[in-house]
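Run log, item B.
One chain of 364 residues. Sequence copied directly from the ordering sheet:
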Amino acid sequence: MTYEGARSITGPFLAVLGASGAVVGFVAGLGELLGYGVRLISGYLSDRTGKYWPITILGYILNLFAVPLLALAGSWQLAAILMITERIGKAIRTPARDAMLSHATSEVGRGWGFGLHEAMDQIGAIAGPLIVALVLYLRGGYQTGFAVLLIPALLAIIVLLVARHLYPTPRELEASQAVLTGKGLPGTFWLYLAGVAFIAAGYVDYPLIAYHLGKGSLVASNWIPVLYAVAMGADALAALIFGYLYDRIGIYVLAIAALVSSMFAPLVFLGGFAMALVGMVIWGIGMGAQESVLRAAVANMISIDRRGTAYGVFNTIYGIFWFAGSALMGMLYDFSAGYVVAFSVATQLLSVLIMLYVGKKATT
């Protein structure tokens, strides 16, 4: 609720503070780049030290409390620093959290388990933007919206501490330990990362989408977070569906998801309100598949002792290509929205081909 509520308005908030489209794309991409780079270190440390809970809790504190501080930002430079801090906090917690989730989901099916996690996550992701939309509707302003999000931030930390008390040793939840042959991470994992890289590079971050919708006056400002909430609703449902399908047909489900999500960019950037609404639903479907199945597949490729490291590598590669794609699409947008569409569609379709090949190798 906290950081998704904030992400629904950071694009237009930066615009109000005087940032250009290139700046919005660069800040969004840089936050992801630095954040995902930190995950490489965080994942390695979580495996070496076994301190999954302390690392996770530290990350959540940074991740959540950077958001209400945005209410005090008076320049786009300061806002950008806080946005990047929020991403770094998420980076610190994510590998350790995902490793703990991989243990907890081993009995129910990792696709379904990670899908359920993503769906529950989206309950807050829907509520957060809607709360911000209500604040804007009541003429509270962007700063007021950020300040109100302090409440769910505090509640989230409380719930996290309760979970730490109830389940102090997550590895004990593992039903069985996967066997990894040879040294290092398996070749299939690296091939899989190539497909992930194309998905990340071509997926337009919401701040740039919100910037486009606001700058072109396609929708009223209070509708921008509502569209994000709609996307998060589609995300939640898609996570459950694709997670369920992954446990039955494997990697092939990612090819299906990428093919579907490749259609969002033309609808969002080249149409009016109705097409943008449909495009945001498809955007949310793609995000749901990414946030559930992409992580579940890593757990099934990697042994228990290397899983934190593998998630760190996975997230770092994802972040590097997300940054490169976001920065490039921000610059492309300043020339033409059509260039953004062409780049996004092309990279998504390339990922389809790679995932089909990975799926074929996994079954032979």
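Observations after the first pass:
- The CA atoms of residues 291 and 360 lie 22 Å apart.
- The domain at 2-171+185-359 is CATH 1.20.1250.20 (Growth Hormone; Chain: A;).
Flagged for discussion on Thursday.
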